[in-house]
Amino acid sequence: MKIHFFKYQGAGNDFILTDNRANTIDHHNPALISALCDRRFGIGGDGMMFLQNSDGYDFEMVYYNADGQPGSMCGNGGRCIVAFAKYLGVIDMETNFLAVDGPHYAKISDEGDWVSLQMTDVKEIIRDEDAYVLNTGSPHYVKLVEGLKEKNVYRDGHAIRNNDTYKAKGINVNFVEPAGEGYFVRTFERGVEDETYACGTGVTAVALAMAKHKLQAGHIVTPIKVLGGDLIIRFDYDGEKFTDIFLEGPAVKVFEGDIEV
């Protein structure tokens, strides 16, 4: 079988996307998806997405991690699939689509390469010693550190993700350091089991955790720098609940092609 695919990236977080509105691809195949995401023997990507029809929505986002297993919400993936939907003519400038964690609203720039994605509201942030733990569509661990540029994120992130607390279900591990008016973030992602150039739900978690850490409230705009570029998080916080959370950043088509599987 031949699969026509598209490669997109959002701040260096890269994904394989396919138009599966005709349901021609049976994607319940972890070995196939893992092979396609392999950077040496496949196309390469942090994950793979299928754009499908869904009653009541413009489309459905079906996401798999690079290990071939179904993933929780992926923020940068969500932004990329919105850009992909515009490229396909499925949407124009705004959309309401369905993801694994429920409905999402998004809007896209006239140029089609900057996407603002609304994330789910967040009510609870707990502490794990000096770190914050929360769910922004995916579970995240957020820890303030010094010397982040030199930090061994793979070693330290892998250790936290696989400790007794988190090993069974896994967790994404974000290390954060203040930078200018915002933060510099590096993330070890479960499912990829490595550091990625960006993580959308991760930088969202960081922005919310840092607002709680600094006892901020009101309408907050947080610029985030990641290895793959720059992202912005906007949200409202009343001291108890985070609402109107938007993840904003680039979503760019890299190339398209066909592969025999």
List the helices and strands and how they pair.
Elements: E1 2-10, E2 13-19, H1 30-37, E3 47-52, E4 60-65, H2 75-88, E5 94-99, E6 102-108, E7 114-118, E8 125-128, E9 131-135, E10 139-144, H3 153-161, E11 172-179, E12 182-189, E13 194-196, H4 200-213, E14 218-226, E15 229-237, E16 242-250, E17 252-260
Parallel strand pairs: 2-3, 10-11, 12-14
Antiparallel strand pairs: 1-2, 1-17, 3-4, 5-6, 6-7, 7-16, 8-9, 9-10, 11-12, 12-13, 14-15, 15-16
Element-level helix/strand string: EEHEEHEEEEEEHEEEHEEEE
Tell me the helix content.
Answer: 10-25%
General form: globular
Q: Helix count?
A: 4
The tally of beta strands, per DSSP, is 17
Cα-based radius of gyration, to the nearest Å = 17 Å
Assign the CATH superfamily of the largest domain: Diaminopimelate Epimerase, Chain A, domain 1
**Broad structural category:** alpha+beta
What is the CATH architecture descriptor of the largest domain? Roll
Q: In the CATH hierarchy, what is the class of the largest domain?
A: Alpha Beta
Distance between the termini: 5 Å
Report the major sheet.
Answer: 12 strands, mixed
The low-confidence parts are none
Reported by name, the CATH topology of the largest domain is: Diaminopimelate Epimerase, Chain A, domain 1
Q: What number of structural domains do the residues give?
A: 2
User: What's the average pLDDT?
Assistant: 97
Strand portion: 35-45%
